[in-house]
Amino acid sequence: MPKYRVTITGSRVHNVAYRPFLLSVAEGFEIDRFFAKNIRKGNTGIVEALIDGDEDKIERFKEYIMENFPENASVDDIAFSDYDGHVMSVESFYRYLTASQLSKIAGTGVSLLKITEGISKKQDMMLEKQDMMLEKQDSMLEKQDMMLEKQDMMLEKQDKMLEKQDKMLEKQDSMLEKQDSLKDVVERGFRELKEEHIKTREMSMEIFRSEVQVLREEIDSLRSSVEEIRKKVGIA
């Protein structure tokens, strides 16, 4: 029976279930012996498969895998070459693939556990930071409450000051009203005094004029008496 090496290269041939796909094709065409492994050369992914069986079955296998690929696979080239080494049975490869997949799953689980532990530690750190932030927020809130209390006290004092200012303004208004009233009284008294003074002055002037007139009349009478006496005495 012929043996062949199948080399599949492409940008995405790993982690797309290419080996289980090839195994299912081999079982479908009743190939007796099969093996497949993943290889990486630089950035290029390679799937290498070994097949051993009847010629017609292998030809149908080759034709099928040239036209069909796993979902999400990206294949650049599929090459076939002769192989003269040992190829394990399909049943053995199935057990081998199952064991390797379980090992991979276990490794992935361990990695996930490590990632989970790392995430848990980060979460713990985040929770600690959140607790610190909450404590700071509580402290800030307390300070804000103290500031609000002080502001309330200041507002109360301002209200009291405003009340006192209102009272002072009321007193000032009352004083101004009294001043205006006193001013009116003083002005009225001054006018009355001025009027009384004018009247008194006019009366005094009238009396003075009357007295002057009487004095003049008396002087004229005296002059007349003197003239008569002088005439009687013969004094020229």
Major sheet: 4 strands, antiparallel
Sheet/helix structural class? alpha+beta
Instruction: Give the termini separation.
Output: 208 Å
Helix and strand string, N-terminal first? EHEEHEH
Tally of contiguous helical segments: 3
Biggest sheet, spatial arrangement of strands: 2-3-1-4
Which whole number gives the mean pLDDT? 87
Outline of the structure:
This protein is an alpha+beta fold and 236 residues long. Helices cover 71% and strands 14% of the residues. The protein has a domain at 3-88: 2-Layer Sandwich (Alpha-Beta Plaits).
Description:
With 236 residues, this protein is α+β, with helices and mostly antiparallel strands. The protein has a domain at 3-88: Alpha-Beta Plaits (2-Layer Sandwich). Helix content is 71%, strand content 14%. The chain is built from 3 helices and 4 strands, in the order E-H-E-E-H-E-H. Strands 2-3-1-4 form a 4-stranded antiparallel β-sheet. A hairpin with a 2-residue loop joins strand 2 and strand 3. Helix 1 runs antiparallel to helix 3 (90-233). The longest helix is centred in the last third of the chain and has 144 residues, at 90-233. The chain is rod-shaped and about 210 Å long. The model has no long low-confidence stretch (mean pLDDT 87).
